[in-house]
Amino acid sequence: MKSGSNMAINKRIELVDFSEKNSELLQEVLQHQNNSTITRINAEFSNDYKIITFPEVEDLLSAINQRIRKLQIIHYNYFADLNEEALAGNAARLPFEANYQFHYNTNGFSSSISFNTAVFYKEVIDNQFQTYVLTAAAIFENIVRLIEKLTKKVVLHHTNRKPPSVPLGMYLNYLDSLLRLNYRNVNPFVQCLLNHDSFLRTYVETVNFLRNSYIHGYKINVGLNSGRYLISKLEGPLTNTSPQAEAKIFTEDFTDSMIRFFSELLETLISEVSASADLPF
User: Fold this and answer.
1) Count of C-beta atoms within a 10 Å radius of residue 34
2) d(CA 84, CA 81)
3) Which of 1, 13, 64, 86 lies in disulfide reach of 96, CB 3.0 to 4.6 Å?
4) Global pTM?
5) What number is the average pLDDT over the span 242-266?
């Protein structure tokens, strides 16, 4: 510690690990592959939607799992204990120091942060929020890729002329239209999405907006306001009066909700793939 006035934060954090459920889903998909019960329906639109268990589906599931852990690490390392007074330059709160032990399964690593000045503390926090948003957006797109592989397609397009990306918001809107037109029924997979509709609808547009802003623009989109570190640009239903307008609440709620959503999605996909006569189901 560099100052006797501030005690360093010390915490142990357990990270999520979906590897067992990932393996279970992969085995169910592989069974279809071995039984030749996988059609080329989705792959006719793009090879991205061809169902190949190893390594394609395996890599996709692994990427989602790793990125969800990345959300946890960023949240706990930089936002859970965010010190707005130090961020504002209060000399009595500097240096700001924290030590974290991250663990999952038999894996673990230590992370220590220390900031002597508010200027650099803010720079790092700004950049970490940007990384958090880009990671969240990537997870959303990864999830679309996963469910567009394993389920009958929702987002239709010209054969072999796939759009550059399919944001989750677009997928949910298309699926909602198909349901209202009675082209799709509320099966367990759709019910899983409906169970987490509040989370998805709350965040998809803001995450997509911030993602585009960070990739194509230069604005930070976060900053101190009345002693709180707030997100300055939000898309409905989030507004500047929403609790999630505060970055540390945003990252906490999003991380926890994403873990719950993906956990149920995995369970549902395992069940549906297992029960289906062929894939995509």
Assistant:
1) 10
2) 9
3) 86
4) 0.95
5) 98
